[in-house]
Structure formats: C-alpha cells, structure tokens
Design goal:
By secondary structure, this protein is α+β, with helices and mostly antiparallel strands. It has an 8-stranded parallel beta sheet. Strands 25, 26, 27, 29, 30, 31 and 33 form a 7-stranded antiparallel beta sheet that branches. Strands 3, 4, 7, 8, 9 and 10 form a 6-stranded antiparallel beta sheet that branches.
Length: about 700
C-alpha cells in the first residue's frame, strides 16, 4: 500500500475511533468587527483576528498570511465554543489571510468559502488598508425617489404641454396623477418636485427612512433627468420658478426649441436657477434636522443634447451670460468636451459621439479636456459642500466613463479625493453590473448598487423571474442552492466595507417592480399592457423579500411606492406615481415594522451572517454578534411545513435549552408582530412555517462571551 493511502487510512481511523469528530460546522470567522478588530484598519494599526471552534475540538489554529504561519491562542470560551485570537500589524499593501486548523493528523483550511481540505487562495479573506466606509451608511435604511412621480408640492413649476420639443414630440403636462406612463413617456411630466418631498418628510421619517436617494435633479429636458443640461443648478421645474413667461409655448407642430421662450426663460434665467438651488439647500437642511441623510445621482459619463456646453437645441445661443455651445461653433470653449468625428460640419455640427450612439446623450470626452475633467471634480465637491451639504453621490454607469479602463480608474481616484476632501463622511456609491472588485480597493468607490449579491439572486429564488421581468426560469425558482452560491460568490467581491453599505434594492427605476415579479409573468408594458403587471401578484412573497431585505447585510433601499403596493413592468412602467390615498396599508405597515426591527437590533448593521438550512423553496440564515442573533426563516412553498434549524451555528449553546422570541411572522393572508417564544433543544429549533411564510426570531445570550 502506498504511503499516501496509509496516511489517509490512519487519519480516518483516528477521526472515527480515537476522539470526537471534528465539528466543521462550528468553525467560523469573517471580516466583521467581531472577528477582525478594527474591521477597517489603517496602515500601521494592530489588528486582532479571531476564529471560532467547538470547545476542546481542535489541537491548533494558525493564521496564515504573507508566507507566515502564526499560531493563535484561545482568548475566550462561551456556549460550548472556543475563540482563538492573534494580532498582526497592518501594512501598506492588501493583506490576504486564511486559517489552518489542525485536528490530530488532519489539517483543514478556512477562508471565505468556509471549510475545505484544499486551500483555494483566491477565496482568502482580504484587508485593504485605509478602506473605510462612512459609519452612518452601514445598514442605513434608504429610500429612492424618482422625483417627478413622488409628490407634486408646487403646481406652479410644472412643465407645460408644448413647453419644448424632445425626442420626436412635445412635452406633456399630465393632469391625471394616476395615469400609467406611456411607452415613450420620457417627456410626460406629472409634477413631482422638491416641495413635494418636503411635504412628505413626516411620512418618510415615520416609515423609518434614514437616507433619501434622489434620482437626478439637475436641469434636464426628460422626466428621468439622466440627460443633464446644467450640472450647476437644480431644475426649476423641481425647484422654484420666480421669473416666468405667460406666453412662449410652442405652436402646434413647431419643433424648433429656439422658439420655446417659456422653457428658455425657466431654465436659463439665473433668478430661477438660484432660487431652485436655495430651495434644495433648505430641503437638505430640513432632512438633516431630522437626523436623516441625502445622496444625489451623479451622471458624469454623458450629459444631454440640451446641455449648455453642447446646445444642440440652441437654447443658450442668444442668452446673456452663456458661451456658445460646441454644437454651435468650433470656437466654443467647450469644443473638446465632446468628440466630433467630422470637422467640416460647423456651424451646427451634429457629428458627435453619443453614449451607446444616442445623440440625446453626448458622451463626455474627458481625455481631450482637462478643463472638463476639473470641472466635474468641482461639481462633485460643490454639492457635498456648504450650503448644500449632501451626504454623497450615486454614480450612474460609472464604469463607462472615459474611453479606457485605466483612465476610468484614475478619474474615480481623483473624484474620491475631491469629494472626501470636501466632505470626508460622504458616501460614493456606484451603479455597476458585474464584478466591481477593481473599483473597491479603498481609493475609488465606497460601494455599489447591489444587483449581483442581492436583487438578482433573491428575485430568481423567490419568483423565478429576471429582474426586468424579461425571463422566467423554472430551474432557479425556489433553488436555494443556486441562491446561496450566487450570494456567497458575489458578496466576496464587495469586501465587508462595501457589503455593509451596498444598496440592497428589490426594485428601482431600471427594473420591474418586485411585486409584479411575484406573478411570474414575462412581459413589458409595450405588449403585455399595464394591467398585466398587477394581475395575480402575491403580496406574501413580497413580504418574504422585504423580510430578507431588512435583515441582510447592507443598506436596505426601498424604491418609492414599493411599500405602498405599486406594480409595474420595467421602465417606463416602473415609474408610476406614488398612490397617495390609495396605498396598500398592510404593505406600508409591514415595511414600517420590518424597518423598526432592522433599526432596533444594531448588530444587523455590521454583524455576521451564516446560512443555517435550505431546501427547495426553503431557506434560513442567522445574523449575529457574540451576544445577540436574529434567525430568519423562509418557506416559499404553497403549503405549511415543519422545519428543523440548527441555530447553535450562530454561537448559541447546545448544552442548555435556549429561548428564541418570534418578533415577526408573515403568512399568506397577512402578518403579525405579536411576540411568541420558542425553545431550542440542544441548539436545534423546530417550528411550523406557514405557506409563503417568513419568520424572524431574536435571541440574546444569557452568558456573554468574555475575551481575555
């Protein structure tokens, strides 16, 4: 018999006959403050690294990093677990580490993927020196507002019908607040504005919102405002119009915006622009008085064809105080802000580079203009500084900026420096699809909108639907193994600093409403119709999703109206108005109660997470510190069933009975927050889960862990 086979045989005999079997489920560590202290160290700081095992179950634990193998010592014992600890000095470079656990003849490894017999280096834990994200943003409850559709607080600033011409037709003032968005409704305006947000701050505060995220608010011709016209001013249609024209709308059939005198007056008169900025500053002040934060949407990859630097619509051409736009003249000071590919077409040169070839979205040409580069850095600083003092930026299509990957990274490094110098506590949060790891090293973005490690996996698991409602997959519906695999893999790319601040949304302005996805119907408003988005939806599944959203690591972000039961296919249908006076009161109450649970248990903001049980349409995970834990159980089946959960894996004792208090139970017909006590025997909890049910239980350890 070969030596290797003899060794394997001896090891197995030792494990099975000579001593208790290694309890691999008791092994645990992560990048939270409970197992890495400080969790976000700076270069030169001493860092304590901890590791958990079953008590008296292993011989040695080593921390392995930078070619070193450092023995760890027991620093505390509690609830049948040993806690090992060692210290390291954080250097200037990224530190990668894993654990080596020795059990007799057996050696196993522990890193981000958990326990393994073969060490996989790419799954090691990582520490980025100096990568720290704002404390206030960790686990913060956010609320996204698409301004035009939230609340009309000042009808005097509403866009008028035929006020201007855009993308094939004239602007339209919508008088029916409940109107379903048109398929090509980019120029339809319902009148939502900053005053409307101001009027609803009591509602948002009562809901439990901590951070308001606004879709773009700067001067723009569309209702979505991702086609910015002027980065320096809030759109007076959202702000304040103090100087107006009683005439000047376009005649029927007139497509020339040079004739749109009312529009030109509203968006170019500095009195309107300054008054709108002042109103915004007042709004931010009121938000801050309530202990809330606000972040803005930064669209810096491209602007709009109405932009004063380009001026394709000739809005600024004859206005006092404005330079000629690059479309107008080759001598424009903004000539190199854009890439023109035909030098022989001036004046009025239409041959410029558009983002994804859209001529209404001219791509900004940073490489050719240091002036543009510096200007946008100043814009980034301006809005996080007095008198506006916003608390951060959400960056639209951030990875697309520039014409090369290298340039993109350099820009965001400089943007971060500019913003953080002005407001060190500001958050920089990027829209990104795919692996964001190369931007999340502590010197560019803080975090991302969490599509890959939240919205997509949860949607597939609970509904089987793709996030636009463009596809249904039976193989992913209820597939908890696929859900766990996707979450673990994609969470690793965020690191703990990015994970705790990641924007965890169920819906937003780019994807179908989650409640619509619960009907498991593929469709878009263009061919399925608006009514189909509301047919056969399942609010109980929505409540399951909200229960996860409010207990998962990250910043739970409610898209306006989700809490009121708003449905809708992907954009533009997902941009329906908030149904004031026609809300789903149960859904609002459920959101409010789950937000209260989220905010009541502070450890949810930076605590550990561990999957405890799963099967087809079933899932359970724990969120925990050393002393407290929440257990979240989902049963997405059509029938009730009994489940057994090994809750001891969150650090609870198996040596004595433990009481867990149910703080929320959702079921097909509704939900309750009435408390009910369950007893875990030997660390195992048995509960009956209702159909389409979600349960949240709380436990506080009577014997706190004491570290030496």
């Amino acid at each position: 018999m070969k030596r290797e086979n003899v060794d394997v045989t001896k090891r197995m005999q030792y494990m099975l006959t000579m001593r208790p079997v290694l309890n691999k489920d008791a092994l645990f560590s992560d990048g939270s403050e409970y197992y890495r202290c400080p969790a976000e160290p700076k270069a030169g700081e001493t860092v304590k690294i901890r590791f958990r095992t079953q008590r008296n179950n292993v011989d040695m634990v080593y921390l392995v990093y930078e070619g070193k193998k450092q023995e760890m010592e027991i620093c505390g014992t509690s609830n049948g677990f040993d806690y090992y600890e060692t210290e390291i000095i954080m250097g200037n470079e990224i530190l990668r580490y894993h654990f080596e656990v020795v059990y007799g003849w057996l050696t196993c490894y522990y890193n981000y993927q958990g326990v393994s017999m073969d060490h996989e280096k790419r799954m090691d834990f990582e520490i980025y020196p100096g990568y720290d994200t704002p404390k206030w943003a960790k686990g913060a409850v956010m609320y996204q507002i698409f301004v035009d559709r939230f609340c009309n607080g000042d009808p005097s600033n509403d866009v008028e019908t035929r006020e201007y011409f855009y993308i094939g037709d004239a602007s339209v003032r919508v008088h029916d607040w409940a109107k379903i968005p048109a398929v090509m409704g980019v120029r339809e305006f319902c009148g939502g504005d900053l005053q409307g947000i101001m009027d609803k701050l009591d509602y948002l505060q009562d809901l439990g919102v901590e951070v308001i995220y606004l879709n773009p608010i700067f001067v723009s011709p569309s209702n979505h405002k991702y086609d910015i016209q002027d980065y320096d001013y809030v759109d007076p249609h959202y702000g304040k119009i103090v100087e107006d024209c009683e005439w000047g709308i376009l005649a029927e059939g007139d497509r020339d915006n040079a004739h749109a005198e009312k529009f030109i007056k509203r968006v170019t008169d500095k009195r309107n622009l300054e008054a709108s900025n002042a109103l915004f500053a007042n709004l931010v002040g009121e938000i801050h008085k309530r202990g809330m934060k606000i972040i803005l949407d930064g669209v810096f990859n491209h602007c709009g064809s109405f932009n004063k630097w380009l001026d394709r619509e000739r809005i600024y051409e004859n206005q006092e105080g404005y330079e000629k736009g690059a479309y107008i003249s080759a001598d424009s000071p903004y000539r190199y802000f854009f890439n023109f590919y035909d030098e022989n077409r001036w004046p009025y040169n239409p041959c410029y580079d558009g983002w994804w070839t859209h001529d209404t979205l001219p791509k900004l040409n940073y490489e050719a203009s240091r002036e543009l580069y510096d200007y946008i850095l100043q814009v980034g600083k301006k809005w996080v500084s007095p008198p506006y003092n916003v608390d951060g930026w959400r960056l639209d299509v951030a990875a697309d900026l520039g014409h090369s990957n290298e340039f993109n990274h350099q820009f965001w490094k400089d943007f971060r420096k500019a913003v953080k110098e002005a407001n060190p506590n500001a958050i920089i949060l990027a829209e990104h699809y795919g692996n964001p790891e190369s931007w999340l090293m502590g010197d560019e973005w803080d975090t991302v909108m969490n599509y890959d490690a939240f919205m997509e996996p949860l949607t597939w698991f609970l509904t089987g639907m793709e996030k636009h409602s463009d596809e249904y997959r039976e193989d992913l519906y209820g597939n908890s193994d696929a859900f766990i695999g996707a979450m673990k893999n994609n969470m690793r790319a965020l690191h703990m600093s990015g994970l705790y601040t990641a924007m965890n949304e169920l819906s937003n302005h780019d994807h179908s409403r989650f409640l619509t996805r619960t009907n498991r119907r593929v469709g878009r408003i263009s061919y399925a119709g608006a009514e189909a988005a509301s047919e056969n939806v399942n609010p109980a599944v929505m409540r399951e999703a909200v229960a996860v959203q409010m207990t998962w690591p990250g910043a739970p972000t409610v898209y306006y109206g989700d809490e009121a039961g708003v449905c809708g296919f992907t954009d533009p249908d997902n941009r329906r108005t908030y149904p004031w006076g026609h809300e789903d009161r149960m859904m609002i109450d459920f959101h409010r109660d789950m937000i209260r649970i989220h905010r009541r248990y502070e450890f949810l903001r930076e605590g550990s997470v561990k999957f405890l049980w799963n099967d087809y349409q079933g899932l359970c995970y724990g969120r925990f510190s050393h002393e407290e834990r929440l257990i979240v159980i989902l049963n997405n089946r059509e029938e009730e069933r009994e489940v057994e959960i090994e809750v001891w894996k969150t650090g609870m004792s198996r040596l004595e009975d433990a009481t867990l208090t149910r703080v929320m139970l959702s079921y097909r017909e509704g939900y309750t927050t009435e408390e009910y006590e369950y007893t875990a025997k030997a660390g195992v909890l048995t509960v009956t889960m209702p159909a389409y049910g979600a349960m949240v239980l709380y436990h506080k350890c009577p014997h706190p862990t004491l570290f030496r």
